[in-house]
Amino acid sequence: MKSFSLNIRGRLLEYTRPVVMGIINTTADSFYAPSRTGGNEAAERAAMMVRQGADMLDVGACSTRPGSQSVSAKKEIAALEQSLPAIRKAVGPDIPISVDTFRAEVARIAVRDLGADIVNDISGGLLDHDMIPTVSDLKAPYILMHMRGCPADMQTKTVYGESVAADVVKELSEQLALCRRSGIADVILDPGFGFSKLLAQNYELMRDLPALDILGCPILVGISRKSMLTKLLFKSTEEALNATTALNMAALFKGASILRVHDVEQAKETVEIFCALEQKNFWL
What we know:
Order of helices and strands: EEEHEHEHEHEHEHEHHEH
Largest sheet: 8 strands, parallel
Strand content: 15-25%
Shape: globular
Number of helices: 9
Oligomer: single chain
Radius of gyration: 17 Å
Structural class: alpha/beta
């Protein structure tokens, strides 16, 4: 990975090692059942993740698994109101928190009023055209993910050209250009593993992940317990931790800067081993 920085509410954070982002789901139907939480329990889980070494947290209140139907913005906001302030209090002011939403209204409230710092948008601004201007107004970092369509129909939009990575780079670059024109300074790119991609396409994309370097942004990889692992190995999501760890290591060697995970302790160990192999800020 290349070193990168983020401006979090006027505080410049420098990252010279891969970052572990812990997932907090405050939904009742996220694809990995043990990750579902809310309220005080969400705050306790967030504090545990930080103790395990999480550098960032990602809080979502609307399931985006394939085929899912989104909840209303009102319900999404209500769930975040119950969890985000408690999470912020539990982890303190120094841990960056992203809000996982594709709605500009939700992003605005989460960052302005509830303690979130970063906006993580699975649609890269395509599902709500107010999102990019809103993030610019908030002066927040933006996680721009590749997806076609919406979670309900994205798996019908999996036709790519000769290279999945080339098409992903092209489509991300178009939205990245909008971000730059809107004045968003800090953009993190997520190639969207499992979103609008078939099983083999996910692995092709991972093999070609360095193609995204041309866009000049940190790369976030989120493959934790996803179907690209469970379908390949005929395992359940509950049995997919070992596979997640293996592919996270591959992602680091392909240039990932951020690992978005359900299991922080194991991901942190993966980062430590990667840094030892690469001799990057290795503590010995």
